[in-house]
Amino acid sequence: MRNSTLLGATAVALLLGAALPAGGAHHEKVIELTQTPCQFLEAEKDHGFSTAKKADCEAINARTGADRLAKAKVLELAPGDYVFRVSNKNVPYALGFWLREKGYDWRNPLHKLNKVSVSGGGLTTGATKDYAVTLKPGEYVYSCPLNPTPDYRIVVK
After folding, report:
1. Are 151 and 104 contacting, i.e. CB atoms less than 8 angstroms apart?
2. What Cα–Cα distance (Å) separates residue 88 from each residue in 34, 39, 77, 136, 143?
3. At 56, which helix (H) or strand (E)?
4. What does pTM read for this prediction?
5. Which of 133, 137, 134 is nearest to 156 (CA)?
6. Which domain holds residue 107?
7. Per-residue model confidence as pLDDT tens digits over 42-74
8. Residue 132 burial by Cβ neighbours in a 10 Å radius (0-12, 13-18, 19+)
C-alpha cells in the first residue's frame, strides 16, 4: 500500500508542478539556460545583440559565431538525469531548444534509435520550458535552430 500512496503523491505533485517529495524516485538536476538574441547567456558573455527575425542571427553568427564558440564555456556534468530549463529573455519571436549527442544526424534513422536528442519549440518571449534528458559519459551539444546560436558543448564524465 505504501508504494501506491507514494506513486499517487508523486503523480499529484507532478500535475500541480510541485517538487517531488524527498526520498522519491526523481533525482534530476536542473540546468537553467537563458536565451537572448543569437546566444545563450550561460555559455558566453551577453553581447547585447538585437534581432527581429532568424535571418538577423544567421548574419551575426556568420560574422562572429566561430570566435564566440571558441571562447564559450564548456558545460561539464556528471552522468545522470537532468532537466534543462530554458527561458526566452527578450527575443521577439518563438524559440526552441535542441540538445543532442555530438555528431547526431537527424537524417540517420539509426541515430534516432541509438543517440540522445531532445528538442522542442514554442518558447515565446518571457516563456520557460523544461526538457528532461538522461546523459551518459560523452560529448553533447546544445543550440537553438529558431534563434540560431552556436553549438555549445557539454562534456559528461
Report:
1. no
2. 6, 11, 23, 27, 13
3. helix 54-71
4. 0.81
5. 137
6. 27-156
7. 999 999 999 999 999 999 999 999 999 999 999
8. exposed
